[in-house]
Amino acid sequence: MGKKTIISCAVTGAGNTFQKSPHVPITPKEIAEASIEAAKAGAAVAHIHVRDPKTGEYSFDPALFQEVVERVREKETDVILNITAGGGGDFVPDRANPETGGEGTFIQTPEERHLPVGKLLPEICTLDCGSLNFGDQLYMAPVEWLREQAALIKNSGVKAEMECFDTGHLRFANQLVQEGLIDGDPLYQFCLGIPWGAEADAETMLHMIHHLPDRANWSAFGIGRHQIPTAVQAALLGGNVRVGLEDNLYLEKGVLATNAQLVDKTTNILQALDIEPMTPEEARNSLGLTKQLPQRG
């Protein structure tokens, strides 16, 4: 018997990648279709952001999340939904407006970040476990806000995927577990290679693995050219993997990819190493997920 791993596909993200590739889905219909195509290629989980259908820019409109979720759920193809709950944390430094930030600053409270999750009840949602110099801007996630958000996720019955962009984030995620704010076996995502967070290399991944608590489930992704190597390294070390157009646009140098192609490429490489992708049902059993009925109205 070979190993098994969970493949997640982050189908669209929040960056300006739609300006660089025609394959990045924008509308709720396109995002839902990309999620289903990724599932057919071997992904057990689809990680969902939404975009303004008119501009392609990122959005946190609960109605857009609802349309994506409803479109996926009405299809026969099974896939676990993982909705982002990390929106509304962007602070753009501006010397003229140091207290409020410049154009592009958008901060949401824990309650606002949780709103689509609490209404739609996906099986998983993300919880970004700390602030970070995210490229040229600051992603803001104060610790007391994160405690509030973790409690909201726990009370909703959704599994929190604790995203760790640096080693300090992992320390705080472990603190949430110790404080009883995370139910069941904790789920971690190592987010590697993003300026200016943790490096996308084996040493960093091993360091983070060695600081996980007992019974932890974990996954890892790398951005850009690090995507496939990070996925393979994670699977070989016993973790789960994430690929998709949120993190990388290319199938190979100079060749733009679709989400399904990235999942298919990853699946083929892992199978050659005697590592099989889990089905959605196997992933539910592995992670201890619970299907719930969304709120009406």
Overview of this structure, please?
The chain has 9 helices and 18 strands. It has about 300 residues and is an alpha/beta fold. The protein has a single domain, classed as TIM Barrel (Alpha-Beta Barrel). The strands form 5 sheets. An 8-stranded parallel β-barrel has the order 2-3-6-9-12-13-14-15, surrounded by 8 helices. α7 (about 225-235) links the parallel β14 (about 215-220) and β15 (about 240-245). The longest helix is centred in the first third of the chain and has 14 residues, at about 30-40. The radius of gyration is 18 Å and the shape is globular. The mean pLDDT is about 95. Its cofactor is Zn(2+). Keywords: Metal-binding, Transferase, Zinc. GO terms for molecular function: 3-keto-5-aminohexanoate cleavage activity; metal ion binding. Pfam families: BKACE.
How do you describe this structure in short?
The protein is α/β, with parallel strands linked by helices and 297 residues long.
